[in-house]
Design a protein that fits this description.
7-stranded parallel beta sheet; 2 domains; binds magnesium ion; binds guanosine-5'-diphosphate-alpha-D-mannose; elongated
């Protein structure tokens, strides 16, 4: 069976980190999201994947050499500067997908424990044309929302309804099983929204079904979601690592360290922190509930709390970075600078004075 991964979105809500990498390459506990998806597909016996991407995303993926886990990969590109939305890329890839068997479509920016085999089983049993994986959440208003009839048929689908108008708390989890007839529902050569144009039509024809999944589900749409996904995964899968540490370093579990991390004496790391490859931490540094991307240096006496620090960032001594700050790749934060909660620093910026109100340093 084939799976198409939708991976061409811009990830604008993840700026400034998405200025320098596409969403599917964001590291979740030190592994690109795309690799987690490959692994899950391989575990479900699926190893034929089509990546529906923009030209830029294709280049990033190729350069990053994500381990493939036995996956055969084909690329299907949106036309230059003409993104096709969530539906258009499926139509565009129809020859690659083929017309013989049901196939999967996956939103590339979700991290979810969806059992693909079970989704497909339901899809076949119900003789559906399309089956959506559904997940229960507290606030469905940021997502597509489905109302189920008794037999698993979806009788209403609304994309991003106002909170009080949401017909249920079951959201579109961003994983679908489709029959090849779906191609006939997607107009060719233009941007098409699967959620706003195609699903309502399928509802009218009683051809759309839902299959509810519990377990882990997150969309890494915003920085706080990305941080939360890392924390959730850390507490659910990461076994405590044994580290050789110099001096009195304190590790508060759960934490994850990639290869080559170094920690100075009297530093405290954790809980819920992820340090990427070759991250270098000075003396008496404190890091809690944060994600630090590879090759970043954090100098003596600095504190990082509930923040995301991009790749190759240099943080001076005695710096304070508060909750909700996001630091873009290659930025430099000079000695003694404090950033209050909610400051975003664009890639390669140098910050030499404290920032006392939440804002974006561009
Ligand atoms: N190739 C391509 N071209 N891919 C695209 C494009 C495009 O123009 N636009 C979006 N995508 C990809 C994104 O990269 C992402 O993986 C997926 O399609 C969904 O797009 P998002 O922009 O992330 O949508 P969303 O998060 O607001 O909402 C969607 O996902 C929710 C679950 O996370 C909808 O499908 C909702 O109904 C759903 O609940
Ligand atoms: Mg999304």
């Amino acid at each position: 069976m084939k799976a198409l991964i939708l991976a061409g979105g811009f990830g604008t809500r993840l700026r400034p980190l998405s200025c320098t990498r596409p969403k599917i390459l964001f590291p979740i506990v030190n592994k690109p999201l795309l690799e987690w998806t490959f692994e899950r597909l391989a575990n479900n016996g699926i190893n034929d994947v089509i990546l529906a991407v923009s030209h830029q995303t294709e280049t990033f993926i190729k350069l990053s050499r994500v381990p493939r886990h036995g996956m055969h990969i084909a690329y299907s590109r949106d036309p230059l500067r003409k993104p096709l939305g969530t539906g258009g890329p499926i139509k565009k890839a129809q020859k690659l997908i083929g017309y013989n068997a049901p196939f999967l479509v996956i939103n590339g920016d979700i991290f979810a424990d969806v059992n693909y085999a079970e989704l497909l089983k339901t899809h076949k049993e119900k003789h559906a044309l399309a089956t959506i994986a559904l997940h229960k959440v507290a606030d469905p208003s940021r997502f597509g929302v489905a109302e189920l009839a008794e037999n698993g048929r979806i009788k209403r689908f609304v994309e991003k309804p106002e909170r009080e108008k949401a017909p249920s708390d079951l959201i579109n989890a961003g994983v679908y099983a489709f029959n090849p007839e779906i191609f006939e529902y997607i107009p060719e050569g233009r941007k098409v929204s699967l959620e706003r144009e195609v699903f309502p039509k399928l509802v009218e024809e009683d051809m759309l079904y839902g299959c509810v999944f519990d377990g882990l589900w997150t969309d890494i749409g915003k920085p706080e979601d990305f941080l939360e996904t890392n924390k959730t995964l850390l507490s659910s899968i990461v076994k405590q690592q044994k580290l050789k540490t110099k001096g009195n370093v304190e590790i508060r579990s759960p934490v994850a360290f990639d290869k080559g991390v170094s920690l100075g004496e009297k530093s405290i790391v954790g809980p819920s922190s992820v340090l990427g490859r070759n991250v270098c931490i000075g003396k008496s540094v404190q890091i809690r509930e944060s994600v630090i991307f590879p090759y970043t240096v954090i100098s003596d006496f600095s504190t990082i709390d509930n923040a995301i620090i991009g790749e190759n960032v240099v943080i001076g001594t005695n710096v304070k970075i508060a909750k909700g700050c996001v630091i873009g790749d290659h930025a430099k934060i000079r000695d003694n600078v404090s950033l209050v909660s909610g400051v975003w620093v664009c890639p390669a910026k140098e910050v030499s004075e404290s920032v006392l109100t939440p804002k974006c340093i561009a």
